[in-house]
């Protein structure tokens, strides 16, 4: 799978994918990340990518033209397996279902917003989807694009080791839609600064351990993410 990223900060993407799961996926050729500098599709002396909003108001918007020219040069023809995504605070929430959807594509172009926003014609006539990674204000779409790449790349065949993907199938409710959180987990030592690991986990009684884990996962979900349990009921 190829991720194209369109940004005014191409250097941002040097670091994040050198390590870990995505780094390995790139090395093995399962994933390619092509970073494109939006300023390469400007034609004025100052490489202008932004302008003031019609109707007045604060700040500057990314102009439509350089973004359309870039997209049309990166994807020379539109195919059903090529998706264009605009990252913006107004987008639909990026969740595991959205990650699964994008993982079906052969190539995804992630357009990173900056300044106060992006000319709406990008959302209206260029992007297949407009996505936000959550209800908080970021300085731009770059971190969001990195989040999307990480979440989607993990879903591609062969990207996780056999062990990791087996774990995902059997345990992670989140991967199958909104559900319960992972249960609390502990490793050695059995006592750290006076805080003991729940006795049952040391017992070797696998039936009891299974019951405790389910109970603990439900309790923690109720405490930290009650809305996930509400969704389960429906
Ligand atoms: C909602 C705030 N906007 C009204 C004043 C201004 C604005 C702030 C930050 C417009 C764009 C941005 C830059 N953020 C993104 O491009 C962005 C984002 C985000 O801020 N939060 C969660 N997901 C995303 S995806 C892209």
Please provide a written account of the structure:
This protein is 35% helix and 19% strand. It is an alpha/beta fold and 234 residues long. The protein has a 5-stranded parallel beta sheet with strand order 2-1-6-5-8, with helices on both faces. Strands 3-4-7 form a 3-stranded mixed beta sheet. The relative contact order is 0.14. The structure holds ligand 9D3. Ligand 9D3 is lined by residues 87-89, 113, 116-117, 132-134, 136-138, 140-141, 144.
Entry keywords:
5-stranded parallel beta sheet, 3-stranded mixed beta sheet, elongated, binds ligand 9D3, alpha/beta, single chain, 19% strand
Give a summary of the structure in a few sentences.
With 234 residues, the chain is of the alpha/beta class. Helix content is 35%, strand content 19%. The chain has helices spanning 20-27, 64-74, 96-102, 120-125, 142-153, 162-171, 206-224, 226-233, and strands spanning 2-7, 32-37, 50-51, 61-62, 82-93, 107-112, 117-118, 129-132, 191-192, 195-196.
Basic shape: elongated
Radius of gyration: 22 Å
- Estimate the mean pLDDT confidence: 94
Each distinct ligand: ligand 9D3
Residue share in β-strands: 15-25%
Number of strands: 10
**Spatial order of strands in the largest sheet:** 2-1-6-5-8
Main beta sheet: 5 strands, parallel
């Amino acid at each position: 799978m190829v991720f194209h990223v369109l940004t005014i900060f191409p250097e941002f993407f040097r670091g994040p994918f050198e390590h870990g799961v995505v780094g390995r996926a790139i090395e093995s050729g399962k994933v390619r990340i092509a970073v494109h500098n939006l300023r390469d599709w400007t034609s004025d002396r100052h490489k202008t990518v932004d302008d003031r909003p019609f109707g007045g108001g604060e700040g500057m918007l990314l102009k439509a033209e350089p973004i359309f020219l870039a997209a049309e040069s990166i994807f020379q023809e539109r195919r059903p397996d090529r998706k264009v995504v605009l990252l913006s605070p107004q987008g639909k929430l990026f969740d595991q279902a959205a990650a699964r959807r994008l993982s079906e594509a052969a190539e995804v172009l992630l357009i990173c917003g900056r300044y106060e926003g992006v000319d709406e014609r990008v959302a209206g006539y260029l992007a297949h989807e407009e996505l936000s990674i959550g209800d908080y204000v970021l300085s731009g779409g770059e971190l969001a694009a990195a989040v999307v790449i990480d979440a989607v790349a993990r879903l591609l065949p062969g990207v996780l080791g056999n062990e990791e993907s087996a774990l995902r199938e059997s345990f992670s409710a989140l991967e199958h839609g909104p559900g319960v959180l992972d249960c609390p987990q502990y490793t050695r030592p059995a006592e750290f600064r006076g805080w003991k690991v729940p006795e049952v986990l040391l017992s070797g009684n696998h039936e009891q351990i299974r019951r405790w884990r389910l109970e603990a996962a439900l309790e923690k979900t109720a405490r930290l993410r009650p809305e996930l349990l509400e969704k389960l009921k429906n």
